[in-house]
Amino acid sequence: MTALNVPPHGGPDLPQERRLVTEIPGPRSREMFARKQAAVPPGVGTTLPVFVTKAGGGVVVDADGNSLIDFGSGIAVTNVGNAAPRVVERVRKQVADFTHTCFMVTPYESYVRVCETLNRITPGDHDKRTFLVNSGAEAVENAVKVARHATGRPAVVVFDHGYHGRTLLTMTLTAKNMPYKHRFGPFAPEVYRAPLAYPFRWPTGRERCAEEAAAQTIDMIDKQVGAENVAAVVIEPIAGEGGFIEPAPGFLPKIAEFCRANGIVFVADEVQTGFARTGHLFACEHEGIVPDIITTAKGIAGGLPLAAVTGRAELLDAVHPGGLGGTYGGNPLACEAALAVFETIEREDLVGRARRIGSIMLPRLRALAERAPAVGDVRGRGAMIAIELVRPGTTEPDPALTAQVAKRCHAEGLLVLTAGTYGNVLRFLPPLVIPDHLLEEGLTILEKAVIEA
Ligand SMILES: Cc1ncc(COP(=O)(O)O)c(CNCCCC(=O)O)c1O
Predict the structure, then answer these.
(1) Residues 209 and 261 in one domain
(2) Which biological process annotations from GO are given for this protein (predicted)?
(3) Which atom from ligand 1 is nearest to the alpha carbon of 270?
């Protein structure tokens, strides 16, 4: 058990309990949702229309006074907990000193400290550089810019089930059409898609998945693109929005080796997997992958908008002065939050905490799969866990059942998210500071929802 020696997250007055005082969503949330519908386009979706007033540890509290168990972390963002004490403390001081200068105009030390830390803690002991942007998509866009600039090559290779953002290039890199790409084209040129080593769905079975998927990827590159034309391969060490797919063991090393042998920049997109989420500081560490560039965001700053591009110095330094930037990149509040996150991860051993969460969740979900044949696959690492729901006895995705189970969980005060190319994955991303009793209670709610669905 990894002890947590910080005050209860979200402040001392935030009880770590599930408490339902109305139906979910309650009347105040329903009223606010009506206003949201009148003011915000429906294109901005809502997983659970409860309007949050406070959050911390393993709970979110809504406008009706309900306290819900959080298995979402705002989509893998509040790894250190919502309103984490050290984040609050640093941001509170910073906001009273200065809120923005634009680092390209007049710099400030916290930006440099964040970059120094990322250069040190990301995989690999080579000379690195980091620059800061605002979102995961912006980080991925910039990783591709740097790779193209450094190599002088145009092509980018991505994978089935990949997700990289909602900007034009990152939409192009993303696999799933609906809702991310539909009617937003034409898309960016010179992007090529390869098969992902998806063990649960590999046609010839798990054993041959890594070797065959790598061989097909390399063959696609050789025949359709030409390795000498490829600037970068962009891949998530665990596919996030695509359904928490751990590539078959050995696949990532084979792809990384091919990149190395052909002067292709290997970009690890760790926007969702980074910062202790998977039981390593970065998911690349699981198979000893040292990426040429790593993109990070989400868990980096405890909820403040921040993202980073960290990579080999020779690649990033090759860009001409002024070639990288943006108004808000590395905002001082977000940088202070990031420094608080780095400290919290280390001081609270949140890597160990993520492993403990996985050690609690995986056995219970595997036992559930024994009882419920609709649970086709249980997978994930650390506190990035998922179940894939199928028609019993088949691998046929069951998105309707998935939505039904999620709805039941929500009604019982457990905030869960879905994912997957086929919409049939329930994913679990609890804050790494969630107390064990809430984790266990959430699992009980989930098990009941699956069994009774
Ligand atoms: C691996 C990976 N790369 C890039 C991104 C993009 O990060 P941004 O900060 O959302 O731009 C993500 C964001 N994933 C959540 C998207 C939520 C939604 O928009 O519906 C990711 O997971």
Answers:
(1) yes
(2) gamma-aminobutyric acid metabolic process
(3) 1
